Amino acid sequence: MDIGEKINLIINNVSNVILGKSKVIKLALASMLSEGHILFEDVPGVGKTVLARSLARSIGCSFKRVQFTPDLLPSDITGVSVYNQKTNEFEFRKGPILSQVVLADEINRGTPRTQSSLLEGMAEKQVTVDGVTRQLPSPFIVMATQNPIDFDGTFPLPEAQLDRFLVKLNIGYPGKEDEANILTGQQFKHPVESIEPVVSDSEFLKLQEQVKKIHVTDSIKNYIVEIVRATREHQALELGVSPRGSLGIFKLSQAWAAIQGRDYVIPDDVKVVAPYVLKHRMVLKSENRLRGREPESIVSEILSRIEVPVEVK
């Protein structure tokens, strides 16, 4: 079975649970194939948690969910050393971060100190507790959710934390027909309960390695760099995108090309994924925020202005 067949198996498996959201599923999977973390920002009840669980089950990975609240402590995530009176030694009790897929639910309800307990794991795939560094399992992916309309009792994610997420995705409301099918499908039990792995975690690791081999020409690389550099020079932005954003577009373009059944990247791949990598990394100037300008419009403006390379193979 080749890479395309395995990818389609995962997409079809998740699509049985998340109806009518093919592009979001593909973008989330592309991010996972790129070894990237995902931030879901949307209203409650549209399936953010279910999508995370479905993806984790489909690739045979261990899954832990952490409900972020103001009283959640960093040790509740990373784990803690507990003294055992029988052995007269301290024993480490693993936190949920030592799972392959971690869902940080309503992450902006946690305090900045608790939010930052994820940073080391997201950046270096390791966690340090009581001076001891422990490697996280592979694959390791953090999926976080936050509600865009609820401000009471929330702590907005700082730029350094946002920059650790490869993409920021919105699921959106289902269509009329899909919503009716959701009612039918959940009449007796939730379909996520019966979802089975279609690839193993070791097979998924191989998929991640295969995605890295997707061909990207120098002209496409330069195209990506020009797009990101344009954010640093845009008059509406206080802060442009760092080189981590360039690398994010590069990797996500490779994964998107693989999902489309190609072993090479084309400019359209870059155009599709760039908004999801860039929009949460840009900081608008205060006057532009007050005017209601959105990061998406700036990305669209940049993409329309940058010259598209012609020769891609």
Shape: globular
What structural category arises from helix and sheet content? Answer: alpha/beta
Instruction: Indicate the multimeric state.
Output: single chain
**Share of residues in strands:** 15-25%
Instruction: Report the uncertain regions.
Output: none
Class of the domain at 213-313 in CATH?
A: Mainly Alpha
Largest sheet: 5 strands, parallel
Order of secondary-structure elements = HHEHEHEEEHHEEEHEHHHEHHEHH
Biggest β-sheet: strands ordered side by side in the sheet? 2-5-8-1-9
The CATH architecture term of the domain at 213-313 is: Orthogonal Bundle
Radius of gyration: 20 Å
Helices and strands in order, then pairings?
Elements: H1 3-15, H2 22-33, E1 37-41, H3 48-58, E2 63-67, H4 75-78, E3 79-84, E4 89-94, E5 101-105, H5 112-115, H6 119-124, E6 126-129, E7 132-135, E8 141-146, H7 159-162, E9 165-169, H8 176-185, H9 201-211, H10 218-233, E10 237-239, H11 243-259, H12 267-278, E11 283-284, H13 286-290, H14 295-305
Parallel strand pairs: 1-8, 1-9, 2-5, 5-8
Antiparallel strand pairs: 3-4, 6-7, 10-11
How does this structure look, described?
- The protein has a domain of 101 residues: Orthogonal Bundle (Helicase, Ruva Protein, domain 3), CATH 1.10.8.80.
- Strands 2-5-8-1-9 form a 5-stranded parallel β-sheet. It has a two-stranded antiparallel sheet with strand order 3-4. Strands 6-7 form a two-stranded antiparallel ribbon.
- The protein is 43% helix and 16% strand.
- It is globular, with a radius of gyration of 20 Å.
- β3 and β4 form a beta hairpin.
- The protein is an alpha/beta fold and 313 residues long.
